[in-house]
Amino acid sequence: MRLLFVSIVILLAVPVFGAERVVLIEDFTNCGCSYCWNFEPALNGFVNTHLASGEIAVIRVHVNWPYANDPIYQANPTEQNARKSAYGVNGVPWVQVDGKIHASSSGPGLESALSSRIGVPSYLDIFVARNGDDQTGNVSIGLVAEEDLGLTDPIRLFATIVEDQVPGVQYWAGSYFEQAFRDNLFGVAGPLVEFQAPYPDTVYFQADYDISSWVSDNLYLAVFVQKYTSADKEVLNARWYKFMDLMTGIEGGAEAPVQPDLVAGPNPSNGTIMVTPVLPDETGGYISVYDLSGRQVAGVPALNGHEETFELPSSGIYIVRLVTGSGMTANTSLVVLK
């Protein structure tokens, strides 16, 4: 029993292998730009293919030239100007890939830029939960540094709402704006993100949302962490969510618990386990399953009272960990016999 306890303590401080990389695509455009309209078929083909495969997150930022009254730009000029200024955008179309790469405006150029980034290892994981309805609420974001990221530049968190199926004007008349910039939930420049040993280390952020002006079912959320003030503007990792499909932290009914808890079993099991999180009020969360080498073998956002099923790969001892949006944790161990 002492050996098991020591193993669990070590597990929670050992780096895991790496997070899935999602590449951020930022397209700078304007509805009065003929070059942008001509680029649209190639861009849409690229975006549709790689959104479906889960490889990218997409934000289409509108600028105020050549057509000053672009409706997407006019709806939020301050935050879109900040993104434009960050990269020194001086012409459209302009596509920035993971902050670092100004890609050529062609299908092959986009594919080349994506290929150069998708395989770059990332040790920063991101999970998101939502509390609220289709009008207002808040979003909770957890960032996990699986090991020391070795950073010399500060990093900031961004969470950008975009909207699909917005009726177009000018060259887009009779068509739609897709992934149209709507709101940076944390404002022009998101909060500083700071990690510290021991690793993995998890930090949490929360932002209010008001989506009452838009069609809620057409909204998506791009979440990313960026070296915003560095020369290369690198995005360390990103995530892409359909906004209304985000996991919600707790649903109405019974009185909420004060501390998180996990109900997990059977113990021992043949490899199939069921885990039900119990979450305090107004917190999202994330369930992670680790083996004793410190490797994360499974993980999903946590929904209060919702049972999740995991298939564990081999015999051994596994640690199930629940982390809430406010930083509270609950852990339990399970034995698998195959």
Key structural traits:
5-stranded antiparallel sheet; alpha+beta; Immunoglobulin-like; 4-stranded mixed sheet; 338 residues; 2 domains; 21 strands
| Domain count | 2
Secondary structure: helix percent: 10-25%
Query: Measured on Cα atoms, how large is the radius of gyration?
Result: 21 Å
CATH architecture of the largest domain: Sandwich
Overall 3D form: elongated
- Which spans of ≥5 residues are poorly predicted at pLDDT below 50? 1-16, 249-256
How far is the N terminus from the C terminus?
21 Å
CATH superfamily membership of the largest domain, which one? Immunoglobulins
Order of helical and strand elements = HEHEHHEEHEEEEEEEEEEEEEEEEE
Strand tally is 21
Q: Strand count, sense and closure of the main sheet?
A: 5 strands, antiparallel
Q: What is the arithmetic mean of pLDDT?
A: 88
Structural class computed from helices and strand pairing: alpha+beta
If helices are DSSP runs of H or I spanning 4 or more residues, what is the number of helices? 5
Amount of beta strand:
35-45%
Q: Determine and state the CATH class of the largest domain.
A: Mainly Beta
- The name of the CATH topology of the largest domain is Immunoglobulin-like
